[in-house]
Design a protein that fits this description.
The complex is a heterodimer of chains A (288) and B (299). Chain A has helices spanning 71-80, 117-120, 278-286; strands at 10-16, 26-27, 33-34, 42-43, 63-67, 86-89, 98-105, 110-114, 128-133, 146-147, 160-161, 167-171, 174-175, 193-194, 215-222, 228-241, 252-260, 264-268. By secondary structure, chain A is mainly beta. With 299 residues, chain B is mainly beta. Classes of the chains: A mainly beta (288), B mainly beta (299). The A-B interface holds A 1, 27-31, 176-187, 194, 196, 201, 220, 222, 224-233, 246-249 and B 29, 31, 33, 177-187, 195, 197-198, 204, 206-207, 209, 224, 226-235, 250-253.
Amino acid sequence: MSAGGSLVSVNLAASIEQASVGDPYRIDADGAPYVPAGDGGIVLGVRVGDGVWQHIADHAAPGACLTHSDPAAAYALSAQACIGNLVTVRSGEAAGECGMVTGKRGEGGRVIVTFAQPVLGRLRPGDQVAVVGRGQGAADLAPGAVLRNIDPDLLSELPVETPGGKVSVGVRAVLPSRVVGNGIGRPTPMWDLDLQLTPASAGGFGAAGLRLGDLVAITDIDARFNAGYRRGWVSVGLVVHGGSPQPGHGPGVTVILSGPAGAFVLNADATDHCGLREETVLEAGRDN
Amino acid sequence: MVSNAGQLITQVLAGEVWPPLADRHGFRVNPDGHAFLLPGMGGVTLGVHCGDPATGYAGDHVEPGLSVRHRDPAANYALQYLSCIGNTVTVSSGPGAGAEGFVIGQHAYVLVDMAEPDMRQVTTGDQVTVLAVGQGLALAEHPDVVVKNCSPRLLAALAGGTRADGRLEVHVAARIPAEAIGAGSGMVSEYANTDLMGAYAGLGEDLSLGLEGLRVGDVVAMADQDHRFGRGYREGFMSIGVISTGSCQLFGHGPGPSTILSGPASAFRIIDDSDANIGVLAVPPGAAPAGAAPAGDAR
């Protein structure tokens, strides 16, 4: 459901996050302790297009995570920032450089921003950035198919088309609802959905080749508001962070489309799918 | 069935009946996008006990009985992690002091059922004492099965036991498909519970997974759930839980089991049994104070 009218853009302030942990150890699905690396903050060397299990990491995202020191402002940041939004660095060594929002994460309200690797290397936790928040409230893409968490201008760069009143989407895999873990039951503007997949199990779901930036479809999930089980529905999202050893966690999906299955034509390609490309992200940063 | 119950220790933990909490916006959103404002979490929820329906209330996250926390965050985690289903809880202040109930599960609160006349004497701010025992419980003949949140008293009350074929027989009132697992997935399994979707009585058929008949206190079997070290999906595993919370309108949430057993499905023999409910642990109204309770378990 669209609010109607034209979209509003807002300049949101945020800061580059420092990764933080409590206890040094987390416990993996087999009960073994591990030290989480790459869970938030600035992560170097993880890029859009990389395999979700390519790096030895926990929830590693391609780029840097943004947050805000005030919890309510952090929730607003994550709710209003959308995939495709421009991010400009305002302080520190990388001031003036630009990146693009490529995802969002749950719990604390975090926004994932992808920068060119040389820019990422000059960022430091605490650097201030501005996000041009735009996208929430966008009109339905087709009857019944609501758009969430993405600037509609970015859709032309994704395998998303609307022939004959339906949404045709190219995806890496069509996954059953039972693999959705952390994020279920949470408001989708502020949480991603973790896919409970491992390198050992993914092949059984046609997702062995899952990459950051891929689109995936999840059946029987209605993610218009909170995410939950509804038979006969489909939600489509962008893979925004990598796998996790924790039970109930895994590669994260920020939902961009949700509606009755009849509103969609899903074209799954386990080997040659191409979703959001790194070139698209980096060009968006350079153009500004 | 051989367990190490004799080696477990009991800790005396203080808790406080915690108020219902809201924010200034009040409303939340149901599966169809409609706003609602309903009671359920926190405080003392009257009229819902083990054996009663878990669904069908005009409520959200209905927490039967007393909802208990501790004011200090670290002490609260200890209270939440160490309290086990079946532990004796005594009211320690207020007009209801001396009344006794038992833990039925966790839900970011420790949830306590007691006789309705006793419960009516208790309100927010009253102090309670939990005799916490159960974490560390293990079954020598079932090394692949992890036991948690389960007091020795509950273990003894569960129907079934070790079978001749070596499996652990567990009686359950319902079997839960993996599709029903909602909020709580990915969290540690000694805290809060696993919300079940598909039990939205009165809402659309397309939301139903046939779980509207669940009752508070039902023992249930969750398919493809590995809750040994958290809560996650794993084909071929099984987790057993006790329904400790009821009706939800919030989407992706619902009646929730607190986990008591988890392991490979092949380690269990599941028996469908409509009597599989922890109501058998109920304490009669006006029961004597818990001072003489052996090893901290509800008598």
